[in-house]
Amino acid sequence: MTKYLDLIAMAAFACAVLFCPGVQAAETDATNLVVKLGFDQFPVENTCDGADVSPAIEVQGLNASSLAIIVDDMDAPSGTFTHWVIWNIPPIDVIPGGIARSGTIADPFPARQGTNDFGEIGYAGPCPPSGKPHRYFFRAYGLDGMLDLSAGASAADLQTAIEGHVLQKGEALASYGI
Q1: Residue 15 within a domain
Q2: For residue 115, is it within any domain?
Q3: How far apart are the two ends of the chain, measured CA to CA in Å?
Q4: Which of 59, 56, 21, 55 is nearest to 140 (CA)?
Q5: Is residue 152 included in any domain, yes or no?
Q6: Alpha-carbon span 67 to 112, nearest angstrom
Q7: Rounded distance between C-alpha atoms, residue 112 and residue 79, angstroms
Q8: Measured between alpha carbons, how far is 18 from 115 in angstroms, rounded to an integer?
Q9: Chain centroid to CA 105: how far?
Q10: Domain total for the chain?
Q11: Staple 142 to which of 15, 64, 105, 157, CB 3.0 to 4.6 Å?
Q12: What pTM, to 2 d.p., does this model score?
């Protein structure tokens, strides 16, 4: 009987360790966000061939204290190329298009923006070389609070800062190329 109880205790412990998420936020425990752009191919106005303004982004299912977004081109000749880094967005359902290119913004909501791989602060749209269209991933992270990260930070800085704070995540994909 003792062997039987020991086996049950071991199985319960293994189940708790393997299948029960911890209380602390961690990426492995993240629930899904639904991220919608309203397009599969970038409109010209959101690229370097147009006005180069940030697109509107809809985030559904956000149940977190703040939101962070990183936009990357995964097909750039030099490897991953970051087009936008923005964080400390309050919980909202729609990030409107045309966000100002400033490290700290107050309108239409307060947030901070980082430096993209063009070396500029804020959004810089797709501008791939001619040839095969590139894929752009909009990754959204629901966080357990606002981050103490200075404006102008890189995507790598933001990814380090969000470690242990991600409650939810989701992504959308769009392409662009001529």
Answers
A1: no
A2: yes
A3: 72
A4: 59
A5: yes
A6: 11
A7: 25
A8: 38
A9: 18
A10: 1
A11: 64
A12: 0.82
